[in-house]
Write a structure and sequence with these properties.
It is built from 15 helices and 8 strands. It is an alpha/beta fold. The protein has a 6-stranded parallel beta sheet, sandwiched between helices. Strands 6-7 form a two-stranded antiparallel sheet.
Length: 393
């Protein structure tokens, strides 16, 4: 019996403006009556908020600069209540993934169709997300990793219950993505590494994914090539605008890919690690990439072999070795142990690691036993486990 002919679709409505100095493109919002800036206090301290006010017009700008990492549902609800009646008609999201997530949630809550909409009811009672009327978002990433500037997804957390909520829908696509690599020049090493590893993870997960198609695979392959080359070099040349540009391109391409495919098992397994131990997202979803590549290789339909060839490697095993070397070059063991001193403790979270809508995208199906196997392989790849994991059933 022959395989059926392929059938697939690709769509992404986000307008993209890419290049050094592109922050100035925010001047196009001078005609918008009232604009909300969602960012962090760090950008206010560094003068970027003032620069945005200069571009947009300070009299038009409402500033919320208290975004925290991994935005909490209660905090987002409080911001929406505070801004209710502010009559903003557009949002600028300036920052990393957390600023993007917060802005996307607010775009729905404060939009025309958001009156009466409750994020909590959406998560707990499955009330529908408004399909239109969200405020347009002008997404300005300051990290190179999440690709959130071109995706219709947002993640909101409840720290008290270690719960991760996902927002998803066409109304969450930003209106415009403005990518200015100059904004990443001062990014600290920890954020450079974590965000860069997130882009790499998204690229690989978009490839070993049931929803992959020729366009997403092409985008993701370029992501992997750029990240493997530029990320380790940035550790030694953090002010190199060429390398920063390459990583921002990798992040953008990974976002375009996962906007169609979504992510898969690495992200699924990472969520409880971030919720319980505070592992930075890019660290939590990337340390297991070599083990996941090996796991998926047994179900390869040719795409992983082609990826290795495209990267100039002999086979997936050489790619696995390259991923291991990258993780060691960025001091992955040290970054993990800073949050999780005893890696064996992570096995307690195995029952929570099969997240619907993520794990089931993976090229090879997985159960809890497989997750334990992958986690064990990931820790052993980094020489962090020994036999201690046997302490946990």
């Amino acid at each position: 019996m022959t395989n059926p002919l392929p059938s697939w679709a690709f769509h992404n409505p986000v307008r993209i403006r890419f290049g050094a100095g592109r922050l100035d493109d925010l001047a196009q919002l001078r005609d918008v009556e009232r604009v909300l800036l969602v960012t962090t206090r760090g950008f206010t301290r560094r003068g970027i908020t003032a620069r945005v006010a200069e571009l947009v017009g300070s009299q038009r700008l409402v500033v919320h600069d208290a975004v925290e990492p991994n935005p909490d549902l209660r905090d987002v609800e409080a911001i929406a209540t505070e801004l209710e009646g502010s009559e903003v008609s557009a949002i600028i999201a300036l920052g990393g993934g957390s600023a993007m997530d917060t802005a996307k949630a607010l775009s729905v809550s404060l939009g025309e169709s958001g009156r009466g909409f409750s994020l909590r009811a959406h998560f707990e009672k499955k009330t529908p997300l408004p399909t239109s009327g969200a405020l347009p978002i002008y997404a300005v990433p300051t990290t190179a990793g999440t690709g959130a500037e071109v995706t219709p997804f947002a993640t909101i957390w409840e720290r008290a219950t270690e719960t991760k909520h996902s927002l998803s829908g066409p109304s969450l696509f930003p209106h415009t993505a403005i990518l200015d690599p100059e904004l990443t020049l001062g990014l600290p090493e920890a954020e450079t590494v974590a965000s860069g590893l997130d882009a790499l993870s998204q690229g690989l997960e978009s490839i070993w994914n049931h929803n992959a198609n020729p366009i997403t695979i092409a985008l993701a392959t370029k992501t992997v090539r750029l990240a493997l080359d530029a990320l380790p070099r940035l550790l030694h040349e953090p002010r190199d605008i060429g390398l920063r540009t390459r990583m921002m391109e990798a992040s953008l391409l990974s976002g375009l890919a996962i906007s169609v495919t979504r992510t898969a098992l690495a992200h699924s397994m990472s969520y409880p690690l971030t919720a319980r131990y505070g592992l930075p997202h890019g660290v939590a979803c990337s340390f297991m990439l070599p083990a996941l590549l090996a796991y998926n290789a047994s179900a390869d339909d040719g795409r992983l072999a082609r990826l290795a060839t495209e990267l100039g490697m002999e086979d997936w095993r050489e790619l696995r070795d390259a991923l291991r070397k990258l993780l060691l070059r960025v001091d992955m063991p040290k970054r993990l142990l800073a949050h999780l001193p005893n890696p064996a403790d992570s096995f307690e979270l195995v029952p929570q690691m099969l997240t619907p809508g993520r794990a089931d995208n993976n090229l090879r199906a997985a159960d809890h036993g497989n997750v334990r196997e992958i986690l064990d392989g990931a820790w052993r790849d980094l020489d962090l486990l020994g036999n201690r994991w046997h302490e946990h059933p």
